[in-house]
Amino acid sequence: MNSKQPCILNPIEILSVSKRIGKINALNGISFSVSPGDIFGFLGPNGAGKTTTIRIILGLLKPTTGQVRLWNEDPWENSFSIKSQIGVVLDEPGLFEHVSLIENLIFYGKLYKLKKNTMIENIDNILSYFNLIDRKNDKVGSFSKGMKKKAALARALLVQPKLLIMDEPTAGLDPESSKELRDKIKDIAQVHKVTVFFSSHNLDEVDKICNRIAIIHRGNIIALGDIQTVRDSPSSFKKKMRFSEKQDVEKIKNMVIDILPVDMKITFDYHNDLFTVLSDKEADTSLLIAALTSNGLKIKEIYDEKASLEEVYLKCIKEAEG
Ligand SMILES: Nc1ncnc2c1ncn2[C@@H]1O[C@H](COP(=O)(O)OP(=O)(O)O)[C@@H](O)[C@H]1O
Ligand SMILES: [Mg+2]
After folding, report:
1. Whose CA is nearest to atom 2 of ligand 1?
2. In percent, how much of the chain has pLDDT > 70?
3. Are 179 and 133 in contact (CB under 8 A)?
4. Which domains does the chain have, with CATH numbers?
5. Tens digit of each residue's pLDDT (9 = 90 or more) over 253-275
6. Minimum-distance ligand 1 atom for the alpha carbon of 45
7. Which residue minimizes the CA distance to atom 1 of ligand 1?
8. Which of 61, 97, 116, 146 is deepest in the core (most CB within 10 A)?
9. Any bridge partners for residue 24, and if so which?
10. How far apart are CA 311 and CA 20, in angstroms?
11. How far apart are CA 322 and CA 315, in angstroms?
12. Which numbered atom of ligand 1 lies nearest the CA of 44?
């Protein structure tokens, strides 16, 4: 760790990183950076390359090409000093199931050479924070999935990290446990000033807590930026329409495609009598009204709406798949 100027260095810098695993190009030259204080969501479907990226960031895998820097240091070359600044929650909780929670945490604390007195006090504080203090003498094997995740997060925080890295932290949890964990992650980032980087395939979760996101698909970053910017990207205009009478979906779709300029990329959706047109440029409402009406249709409603992150995400993926 560079102790001179940690504040102005980015916790994570990824520059043109590719990774070939066997015959698969798991990552195709991805680049992004995570700034101090970010809650950065790394969003993508299964197999997109999220875990591979995290393993590279942690220095567990060596990139085939490209550079990775954590506070300007290479995690592959310089693992211990960097890793003592990072809290990690991977897919597996990484706790011994047959021993108690407190023993697990003490074992981990010793591994990181934490001082015993402060460590015990710290463990109690962290377990209280996660509502796990009453269970500290119970074997981890007896915990629910949600409790195991909280325990894994508690363990990750024991080193008082500057950066918290998590691989799909709420995957497989029920909505209540997910929300509890999400609230904690947000609190840790904001109150305790920890930079957070986590992967997810859950848009809603990313939308709720992140300030920045990257969308990864088949080893390529297909969108990157402040969450607001990505959501409001120019390629995500949305218009909603409802007609007075029930309409054939294909007929309306073809009509709209005919009306709008040929170079406009559009995605069409229909649900509960409501037609949604997503487009990369703003569709002219008066043009649509005039053309649809002249085709004999009675328009009940037509209005613009902000595209949700989910719609932008699905649109990005659809475009990436060509
Ligand atoms: N150890 C491995 N051996 C072979 N292929 C792998 C291995 N790890 C990852 N891959 C492949 O690399 C791609 C990205 O995987 P991964 O990073 O695990 O995706 P994600 O975490 O987004 O689901 C996938 O096509 C996956 O099958
Ligand atoms: Mg994964």
Report:
1. 21
2. 97
3. no
4. 6-226 (3.40.50.300), 237-306 (3.30.70.100)
5. 999 999 999 988 888 889 989 99
6. 22
7. 21
8. 61
9. 21
10. 31
11. 11
12. 22
